[in-house]
Design brief:
Chain lengths: ~400, ~300
């Protein structure tokens, strides 16, 4: 099979992994040295596909042959798709060729499970070792970690890779049992634990070898089983707390060719995925807890964003006086982000804040208006009922319309 | 009203602005004329170094201001310099809010600095190097930045490419790296421009195959695409021509599943439970196990 044919098959097989980040790596440079590649900590999106997703890394599978039969996966063994397998040298060649042309910032390599977890992991590590040691490649490498693989192999993966990831796939153990019979929640969490331990050891020895300096991430599939957003966010929160994950990715389940009957057949729930990312951002960057956003399980509202939903449920805290409130509380006002909260705090050291300042900072003024007090402004809507306010502030339903 | 002519570089503006400030010229008393002109005896404008400084004049400005002004000066627009002088004037009189995004001048300044940073990021991301020679020894690219950011990108590509020589040509200037030293040549020589615009890449098909396959038609989203990859860059990207074709395909039914159009209906291969190790070992495994549904 031609290389280009393999690439078509193995990129198609890899696209259901949402992550394509190349951020968080330490500063490396090839200036004045042999070898190729640099990292700066900031990720670069070298292109965008017409689905609006960023292309930052060469994201491919080493092979889409797979012994597992995970129902949601296009590469499951019972799936009737073309199969292919790269040699490690072919992956190295593609990575370096794309990198020199400035098409990508590195490699994200994953694989179907062939022979055994150890064998598969060993193959992935081999590609990373070739790149780093033989070609002195200093670009970004993200390796998928196979649960059940030998901790020694994971340790070697961590020495070469900037980021490691193990996908939890489904938020509950029951879901995993039903849809991914060969996978076990316990071994997935064990692999995350091995990575976490590796990170901690590397942090204790600042001059020793690095271990996955861009940390670990994971992915959950949304809409393949019946889990609600509350369950999903609580699982994410547990993972953030327990393993210090950098990111949890949410991947709306896209129908795959000849989907098994037990799965959803609708187009991917993109708006739901979007709301989950917003809520996830509130967990990571704003100090919210999953229990605050969804006090009694269930799903996030689709018509308003999770921060607005929280504010409408907690009207007693509002309106907030921007000239007096703590910056952390200002960041909880709908329409004002952490960055603008910091800018407002900076500005009010120079003078009193006025309503026009919100406009100049490009806050979402309409959203913020009912919840803030400034020197020259008090909201008339402060006494409006939350239900009425919600009607007024809801996002246009056409926003994420598909057709 | 004083008209001040300088060569259009930030360094020259900075020297002139210093004279003006020491002479106590308010922002509405100065007109900045950049670009070529005869410095001596110019009908329109002269340098500011003959201005008498006010006795005992001195000023202090916030430490971060010069770098911010220098960044904002790279923003291409008609009134590039007058805003900079207005902010400098206000800051030199102790008005720190002139730098802040909440201030009318400050917000304009910050917005220009942000646009410049963003354009630099676009340059880092969307430059496409094409190889010269067989095997490829040099890499050249053609790129059209909206602001004067080429100079800022040299360090990034020197770190990235290591010993590999490269050249980036733009309508204004060209940046060059020979593997050890960098140079910025302005204006860009026409021969370099032609070289960068006509270089062809024999391996471009690989990238296009990747781009087509990594796209998920079930998720097609034109607005998000345009936000990340503004249409003005498409013409110089190898994947630019594929974008419309993929969007149209998605609209015409490809979005039923996420699979790439080239693979839909192609002969596939199920793997038996007993097939342990079947996939291992061989690099080339026939995929013609089931009838090709395309025919």
């Amino acid at each position: 099979m031609q290389l280009i044919d393999k690439l078509s098959i193995l990129a198609d097989a890899a696209k259901y992994d949402a992550s394509c980040a190349s951020s968080g790596a330490p500063r490396r440079s090839s200036k004045g040295r042999s070898g190729l590649g640099s990292t700066s900590g900031m990720g670069i999106c070298h292109s965008f596909t017409p689905d609006g997703r960023c292309v930052s890394l060469l994201k491919i599978l080493l092979t889409n042959f797979c012994l597992y039969d995970c129902q949601y996966c296009i590469n499951r063994r019972s799936s009737d798709v073309p199969r292919a397998r790269f040699t490690p040298e072919e992956v190295v060649r593609l990575t370096l060729d794309f990198y020199r042309r400035n098409l990508v910032s590195g490699l994200f390599l994953s694989s179907g499970i062939i022979r055994s977890a150890d064998y598969t992991m060993e193959q992935l590590v081999r590609v990373a070792r070739l790149l780093r040691e033989e070609h002195e490649f200093r670009g970004y490498i993200h390796l998928k970690t196979i649960p059940d693989a030998d901790p020694l192999l994971i340790a070697e993966a961590g020495r070469h890779a900037d980021r490691l990831s193990v996908n939890v796939e489904l938020p509950t153990e029951q879901g995993l049992l039903r849809l991914a019979p060969e996978k076990r929640a316990r071994s997935i969490r064990q692999a995350m634990g091995v990575i976490r331990t590796g990170e901690q050891q590397a942090q204790q020895e600042p001059r020793g070898a690095t271990f996955a300096p861009a940390g670990q991430s994971t992915q959950m599939i949304i809409g393949a089983d019946a889990s609600d957003d509350g369950t999903i966010l609580r699982t994410a929160e547990t993972l953030y707390d327990g393993f210090r994950l950098r990111r949890v990715y949410y991947s709306a389940f896209s129908p795959i060719p000849q989907s098994p009957r037990m799965l959803a057949q609708q187009p991917p729930p993109l708006l739901r995925e979007h709301r989950l990312y917003q809520a996830d951002f509130l967990l990571r960057g704003y100090g919210f807890r999953a229990g605050e956003l969804l006090p009694d399980n269930g799903n996030l509202a689709l018509d308003i964003d999770p921060k607005l939903a929280w504010a409408l449920a907690n009207r007693a805290l509002f309106p907030v006086d921007l000239n007096r409130a703590e910056p952390a509380l200002i960041a909880r006002v709908p329409g004002i982000g952490v960055l603008n909260a910091r800018r407002l705090a900076e500005l009010r050291r120079e003078r009193r804040l006025r309503y026009a300042d919100l406009q100049r900072l490009r806050c979402a003024v309409e959203k913020a208006a009912p919840f803030v007090i400034t020197q020259d402004y008090r909201p008339r809507q402060a006494t409006l009922e939350s239900a009425v306010l919600r009607q007024r502030l809801r996002d246009g339903s056409a926003q994420l319309e598909l057709w | 009203m004083r008209q001040i002519r300088f060569d259009g570089t930030f360094e020259a503006w900075r020297a002139e602005a210093r004279h003006c400030l020491l002479a106590g010229l308010a922002p509405d008393e100065v007109v900045w004329l950049d670009g070529p002109g005869d410095r001596t005896g110019d009908l329109f404008g002269a340098a500011a170094d003959d201005l008498p400084a006010q006795p005992g004049a001195s000023f202090r400005i916030p430490r971060e201001l010069p770098a911010l002004l220098q960044l904002a000066a790279r923003f291409r627009c008609e009134a590039r310099w007058s805003l900079l002088y207005r902010v400098l004037w206000r800051a030199s009189r102790g008005d720190r809010s002139a730098l802040l995004a909440g201030d009318p001048d400050g917000s304009l300044l910050q917005r220009r600095a942000k646009a410049v940073r963003r354009e630099l990021h676009h340059l880092h991301a969307f430059v496409r190097f094409r190889p010269l020679g067989e095997p490829a020894k040099h890499f050249v690219a053609w790129h059209e930045p909206a602001h004067d950011v080429l100079e800022l990108a040299i360090e990034h590509f020197a770190r990235r490419m290591g010993g590999t020589p490269w050249m980036i040509a733009t309508p204004q200037a060209a940046a060059l790296w020979d593997g050890r030293r960098a140079a910025l040549v302005s204006p860009c020589p026409p021969t370099w421009r032609a070289l960068a615009q006509t270089a062809a890449d024999p391996d471009e098909a690989l990238w296009l195959a990747y781009y087509r396959s990594i796209f998920n038609p079930a998720r097609a989203n034109r607005e998000a695409l345009l936000k990340g990859l503004p249409a003005r860059f498409w013409k110089d990207l190898p994947e630019g021509t594929a974008i419309c074709e993929l969007l149209v395909g998605a609209r015409n039914g490809d979005r039923r599943t996420g699979q790439a159009a080239a693979l839909v209906g192609r002969a596939g291969r199920r793997i038996g439970r007993e097939a342990r190790g079947l996939a291992a070992g061989q690099g080339e495994v026939s995929v013609r196990e089931s009838p090709d549904r395309r025919r």
